[in-house]
């Protein structure tokens, strides 16, 4: 069923005489934001421990919690470049190929 043909100005779609569904306003897919994130799993030489960093108390998400180093990939940055940058920023470690 193509509900886009039956859209009302406020996003209503009538299923039957008594039932309506509210639809989100039409949008352009080019306007959607996609966030790509990277996470580093860094283990010690023995392989029995992983590096975790404590998030700052002022962080918006999971403030003060422990997490693996990582973050968002910046525009025009490769996944590996982003991973290297995030690990350097959060843990002070250089990653090399």
Walk me through the structure.
With 97 residues, this protein is α+β, with helices and mostly antiparallel strands. It is 13% helix and 20% strand. It has 1 helix and 6 strands, in the order ββββββα. A two-stranded antiparallel ribbon has the order 1-2. Strands 3-6 form a two-stranded antiparallel sheet. The protein has a two-stranded antiparallel sheet with strand order 4-5. Strand 1 and strand 2 form a beta hairpin. The protein is globular. The N and C termini lie far apart (51 Å). About 5% of the residues have low confidence.
Total helical segments: 1
Give the SSE string: EEEEEEH
- Ranges where pLDDT stays below 50 over 5 or more residues in a row are 6-10
Order of strands across the biggest sheet?
1-2
Helix content: 10-25%
Describe the sheet with the most strands.
2 strands, antiparallel
SS strand fraction: 15-25%
Which overall shape is indicated by the principal axes computed on the Cα atoms?
Answer: globular
Query: What is the β-strand count?
Result: 6
Distance between the termini: 51 Å
Q: Decide which structural class fits the backbone.
A: alpha+beta
Q: Tell me the Rg in angstroms.
A: 22 Å
Question: What do the pLDDT scores average to?
Answer: 77
């Amino acid at each position: 069923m193509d509900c886009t043909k039956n859209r009302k100005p406020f996003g209503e779609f009538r299923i039957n005489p008594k039932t309506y569904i509210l639809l989100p306003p039409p949008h352009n897919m080019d306007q959607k934001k996609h966030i790509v994130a990277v996470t580093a799993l860094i283990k010690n030489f023995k392989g029995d421990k992983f590096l975790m960093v404590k998030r700052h108390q002022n962080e918006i998400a999971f403030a003060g919690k422990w997490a693996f180093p990582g973050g968002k990939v910046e525009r025009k940055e490769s996944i590996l470049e982003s991973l290297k940058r995030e690990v350097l920023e959060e843990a002070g470690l250089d990653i090399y190929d």
